[in-house]
Write a structure and sequence with these properties.
The complex is a heterodimer of chains A (512) and B (320). Chain A is mainly alpha-helical and 512 residues long. Chain A has a two-stranded antiparallel ribbon with strand order 1-2. Chain B is α/β, with parallel strands linked by helices. Chain B contains eleven helices and eleven strands. In chain B, the strands form two sheets. In chain B, strands 2-1-3-10-4-11 form a six-stranded mixed β-sheet, sandwiched between helices. In chain B, strands 7-6-8-5-9 form a five-stranded mixed β-sheet, sandwiched between helices. Classes of the chains: A mainly alpha (512), B alpha/beta (320). Chains A and B meet through β1, α15 and α20 of A and α2, β2, α3, β7 and α7 of B. Chain A: This is Tripartite tricarboxylate transporter permease. Chain A: Keywords: Membrane, Transmembrane, Transmembrane helix.
Chain lengths: 512, 320
């Protein structure tokens, strides 16, 4: 109950006209940067950081974190309307969100995305409020073997639970892992696969690849098929919103599962990106008709968005408690904290109560206000679909190029983005899934580092991945998921034999 | 008084001034020591109106900072970019064969020296002597966490091995912050972080400073934890392990800028070192104050370069 008192104190800090105005300004700016593909949360926060130098720390962080929430909400808009994920965790939202928009259900998909973002964040904030001290000690349990086990779990769940042909998932993932190796290798301190080029030193930025793979390739495909955005004019009304909300209870299990996965992976340092993918895959796994996923199913929007926002929000906790940023935006916020003389660490919660609880209270208020704001502005965004393709396409390409350039201020990245556009186009044509590729590109490096650090620490002994309960159970779960199709098949067959035995009618073993 | 102020402003009006926003280039990731220093300067310049143009911080930490070096190298003649450099300018070209030489850039000033401290978990041995004995007696080698491979932390670890006869398993992490939390979580036995990187976990009583790698103690005597100040940490030499290492923090412009442009920045960063923000930051992060420019700076860099090179050679980190 101490937490409750502190939270009320936080609200008291927050409820001044000045802070509320800053909050609204932050949210609007955030939605705006979220909508522009590639600009996204981290860049938005970085650009606006100097504006806040003259403010007191609490007002400044409230405004910056509202930009963050705004960007999280806004990121879903481009994923659904244009198949261009703005952030790593929006990738899974495109799987069903974009097909929904194509079927003329854009407004429904957007409402679903915003609502589930809100639910995910809310669950995570509740968790932060009441479990803060415990969670920071949990995160400390993560050494290299634990990190590797989590990454392994993500990769394995993709292969085992993915909807595409397994060999294609593996091909796509392997290519991603290969490209993730370009650049400086932290463990040996040597350059790899740069072929003497100064441009390749930086490695291949994940967002550049994503903008090309999803955005540019989509434009190419659309041009080839017909010169129109395959979405119908979306009209949003209170009726659509209420309709989606009325159906919410039906999906309580999906929402709960995704919130849980999101929170768990969010407080696991570095796990936030994996959450949306895992939320999506599990929702599909437990659905009665997994085939309908990827064809515009509303659960396919609920699952990843809830998980992404639960993790995006709970990722702030390791940042505050340990100084480990869970996402790019969290890293910029971390830089901001230090300017104001607030050093993230275990003592932040003790020495700067006003600040910490003001921030937590702003998570509650920011999310409520943000939800209202995005829902009321949906018609504006949905109306983009009514603009002729010939007018929208060049704008998308330009905004993709700006986004790719802005990440590292490098012209080379624009060429790289266009290259990835072609790769994405070919992949879509021959049916190789893009998601495993992008996942491997984000996590490949970290997984490799974690594996090699574990090996240095254990002297090359693989038993380190079963050396304690935590790492052992994650590794085992990963292996179970990897072979899930086989296990599932065996279980089904055992079940069948038992049934046939009770029926006492022997049948010859059949193989599909 | 007014006259003095007018005289102070006069040279700046006469000389060159930036006409575009000035970029402080950081050769490290977000939240690291260089980033924090850049943000401090950004705030100091902005709050004290030291320059008309705004300052932006640009993070170029790709390839362990090599990205920033190549970026500066390719920006020849551009007076709107300043690099916050540290010993990577000597080490990276040696270990990873990056085609870069700091002599191609224009030196502005050395603004601080950073210390290194040997830390262990607060549940671990209490003195250097006990630490060395425990490390020798351990069945598997003690794990030493650090930032990057074949860099300052790694070199220091090799030296520590040479001086004590202990063998460590060196674990290269991506940042000092990561090395700090890994030590708190008991995933490593020790690290050689800069004071700023371990400050918060020290204040929380989770790690213990064993000794500082300098010939004299850190000068700041204000209490940092309940019982200790930076000045209370013994030097490693006092503790019988004679290993010394300091890391420079210096500002550079790209090559081929005019002397007027160089002079403007010398003046600017001199003013920065006079601000309350800078002084406060130096004490908080336990940095050693220093201000070198012109010939003194070049001489310092040459000596520092030679020392780093010989350390790297001895440790066997120079790529062939």
């Amino acid at each position: 109950m101490e937490a409750f008192g502190l939270l009320l104190h936080g609200f008291a800090v927050l409820l001044t006209w000045k802070t509320l105005v800053l909050m609204m300004v932050g949210l609007v700016l955030g939605i705006f940067v979220g909508v522009l593909p590639g600009l996204g949360g981290p860049n938005g926060v970085a650009i606006l950081l100097p504006l806040t130098f003259t403010m007191d720390p609490t007002s400044a962080i409230v405004m910056l974190s509202c930009i963050y929430w705004g960007a999280l909400f806004g990121g879903a808009i481009t994923s659904i309307l244009f198949n261009i994920p703005g952030e790593a965790w929006s990738v899974a939202t495109t799987f069903d969100g974009y097909p929904m928009a194509q079927q003329g259900r854009a407004a429904e998909a957007l409402t679903a995305a915003f609502t589930s973002s809100f639910i995910g964040s809310l669950v995570a904030v509740l968790l932060i409020t009441f479990l803060a001290p415990m969670i920071s000690s949990f995160a400390l349990k993560f050494g290299p073997p634990e990190f590797f086990a989590v990454y392994l779990l993500t990769f394995c769940s993709f292969v085992g639970l993915g909807r595409e042909a397994r060999h294609k998932t593996v091909i796509s993932m392997s290519l991603g892992l290969l490209l993730a190796g370009v650049g400086m290798d932290t463990v040996s301190g040597q350059l790899r696969m740069t072929f003497g080029s100064a441009e390749l030193l930086r490695g291949i930025n994940f967002l550049v690849a994503v903008i090309g793979l999803f955005g540019i390739s989509e434009i190419l495909l659309t041009m080839e098929e017909r010169l129109a955005l395959r979405g119908h004019a979306a009209s949003i009304s209170l009726r659509v919103v209420l309709g989606v909300w009325k159906d919410l209870p039906k999906y309580w299990m999906t929402l709960l599962r995704s919130s849980f996965i999101g929170c768990w992976l969010g407080i696991t340092p570095g796990g936030a990106i994996a959450a949306s993918f895992m939320g999506y895959n599990l929702a599909k796994r437990f659905a009665k008709d997994p085939e309908s996923f990827g064809k515009g199913r509303i659960e396919g929007v609920f699952a990843p968005e809830t998980a992404a926002h639960a993790s995006g929000t709970s990722a702030l906790l390791p940042m505050l408690a340990l100084g480990i940023p869970g996402s790019g935006t969290a890293a910029i916020l971390l830089g901001g904290l230090m300017v104001w003389g607030l050093n993230p660490g275990p003592l932040l919660f003790v020495e700067h109560k006003d600040f910490v609880w003001g921030l937590i209270a702003s998570m509650y208020l920011g999310n409520v206000v943000g939800l209202v704001l995005v829902l009321t502005t949906v018609p504006i965004f949905a109306s983009i679909l009514r603009v002729p393709f010939a007018a929208v396409a060049p704008m998308i390409v330009v905004s993709c190029a700006i986004g790719a350039y802005a990440i590292q201020n490098a012209m080379f990245d624009i060429w790289l983005m266009l290259g990835f556009g072609l790769v994405g186009y070919v992949f879509k044509k021959i049916g190789i899934p893009l998601a495993p590729f992008t996942l491997a590109l984000v996590l490949g490096n970290r997984a490799e580092d974690a594996f090699r650090l574990s090996m240095i620490g254990s002297g090359g002994d693989l038993k380190v991945f079963w050396s304690n309960g935590l790492v052992g159970s994650i590794t085992t779960l990963a292996i179970v998921l990897l072979f899930w199709p086989v296990i599932d098949g065996l279980l089904a067959r055992v079940g069948r034999t038992r049934r046939t035995r009770t029926a006492d009618a022997p049948t010859p073993p059949s193989r599909p | 008084m007014t006259l003095a102020a007018a005289l102070w402003v006069a040279p700046a009006v006469a000389g060159w001034e930036p006409t575009k926003p000035v970029e402080i280039v950081v050769a490290a990731g977000a939240g690291g020591a260089s980033d924090q220093m850049a943000r401090m300067m950004q705030a100091a310049i902005q709050k004290n109106n030291l320059m008309k143009q705004p300052v932006v911080v640009s993070l170029k930490g790709g390839a362990s900072g090599a990205e920033a070096l190549m970026y500066m190298k390719s920006s020849e003649g551009d007076p709107n970019k300043v690099l916050i450099a540290y010993s990577l300018i000597y080490m990276l070209p040696l270990s990873a064969k990056i085609p870069f030489n700091w002599r191609e850039l224009t030196p502005v000033s050395v603004i601080a020296l950073d210390q290194f401290v040997l830390w262990d978990n607060s549940a671990g041995p209490k003195t250097v002597k006990e630490f060395v004995e425990a490390a020798k007696a351990a069945s598997s080698p003690f794990k030493m966490g650090g930032t990057g491979s074949k860099r300052e932390d790694h070199v220091l670890t090799v030296f520590l091995e040479q001086k004590t006869g202990v063998k460590f398993s060196y674990l290269p992490y991506k940042s000092g912050g990561e090395a700090a939390t890994q030590l708190v979580g008991n995933h490593t036995e020790s690290n050689v972080n800069n004071p700023s990187e371990n400050l918060e976990v020290w204040r929380a009583g989770q790690v213990r400073p064993l000794c500082v790698f300098d010939k004299e103690r850190i000068s700041y005597t204000a209490k940092v934890t309940d019982t200790q100040s930076w000045a209370d940490i013994p030097t490693c030499k006092e503790e019988g392990v004679d290993v010394q290492y300091l890391m420079l923090r210096a500002m550079f412009l790209p090559g081929k800028v005019t002397p007027e442009q160089q002079a403007f920045y010398v003046e600017l960063f001199h003013k920065v070192t006079q601000t309350a923000e800078y002084k406060d930051y130096m004490e908080k992060q336990a940095l050693k104050p220093i201000f070198l420019t012109g010939k003194d700076m070049v001489q310092f860099l040459e000596e520092d370069d030679a020392q780093n090179k010989s350390l790297m050679m001895e440790a066997g980190f120079v790529a062939k």
